[in-house]
């Protein structure tokens, strides 16, 4: 089954290389500013819409000095998607910028890795080196959804639908997921935060927030394998170059949304 894949750029910030790459000093390079964007994704096919992550909430983003370009909930509505009726939400991991609007999806089955749920409801979730990337209230909503029977857990891999596979890679968080989606032009690999920036893969440089460094490196290797064949493209989770690599847009959107929604289609970009 072929699907349509959209990347929605909902936020941004300016940061520094030393704040992005783990142990940046070991590379012997000068520091410099760099942009970092925030995305969630929409997968449509077979008469069903799946939202992949749901962005940060306004308050959590503001506390971290992130700029919200469009409220994720309003972006979905601009795409003709009512979050309150979405029946499937994939959570690639439980950081604040990926589950910040869970309460807007009351009918959705939430799909995430078992390891992810168990970690963030376990004894180490509150330790500061982990907790700084999360919001307790949001983790509470995730735990409640699990208690209410609304969570579907991924062990290692899961065929969510024909042509739509989820793979647990870990690294950034214990149960970080990536998605592989079939489209009419070829496969799209949504790396989410298994790969924040293309440079991480190109230069083998891990991101600074990491739960298991060896798993992060293994994730890099897996992403290389998943995209080594022609016709398969890789979408990084936070790279400002995503809209340039994938020039396709969605016609008919409101002007304030038109440049923030990217149609990811193999053969139409440079990735």
Automatic annotation (TrEMBL):
Signal sequence annotation:
none
**Superkingdom of origin organism:** Bacteria
Gene Ontology MF, one: hydrolase activity
Write down the required cofactor(s): Zn(2+)
Q: Name one Pfam family in it.
A: Lactamase_B
Q: Would I find Metal-binding among this entry's keywords?
A: yes
Family designation: Belongs to the metallo-beta-lactamase superfamily.
Name of the protein described by the UniProt record: Metallo-beta-lactamase domain-containing protein
């Amino acid at each position: 089954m072929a699907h349509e894949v959209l990347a929605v750029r909902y936020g941004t910030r300016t940061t520094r290389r030393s704040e992005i790459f783990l142990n940046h000093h070991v590379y012997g390079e000068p520091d410099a500013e760099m942009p970092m964007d925030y995305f969630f994704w929409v997968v449509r096919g077979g008469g069903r819409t799946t939202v992949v992550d749901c962005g940060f909430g306004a308050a959590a983003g503001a506390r971290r000095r992130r700029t919200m370009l469009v409220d994720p909930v309003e972006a979905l509505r601009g795409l003709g998607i009512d979050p309150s009726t979405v029946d499937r939400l994939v959570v690639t991991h439980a950081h604040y910028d990926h589950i910040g609007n869970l309460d807007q999806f009351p009918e959705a089955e939430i799909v995430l890795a078992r390891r992810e749920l168990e970690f963030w409801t376990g004894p180490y979730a509150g330790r500061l080196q982990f907790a700084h990337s999360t919001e307790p209230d949001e983790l509470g909503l995730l735990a409640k959804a699990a208690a209410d029977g609304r969570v579907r857990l991924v062990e290692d891999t899961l065929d969510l639908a024909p042509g739509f596979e989820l793979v647990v890679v870990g690294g950034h968080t214990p149960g970080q997921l990536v998605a592989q989606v079939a489209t009419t032009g070829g496969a799209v690999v949504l790396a989410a935060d298994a790969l924040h920036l293309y440079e991480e893969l190109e230069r083998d440089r891990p991101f600074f927030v990491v739960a298991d460094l060896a798993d992060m490196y293994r994730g890099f290797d897996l992403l290389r394998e998943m995209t080594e064949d022609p016709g398969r493209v890789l979408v990084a989770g936070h790279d400002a170059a995503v809209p340039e690599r994938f020039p396709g847009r969605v016609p008919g959107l409101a002007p304030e949304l038109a440049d923030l929604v990217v149609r990811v289609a193999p053969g139409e970009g440079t990735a």
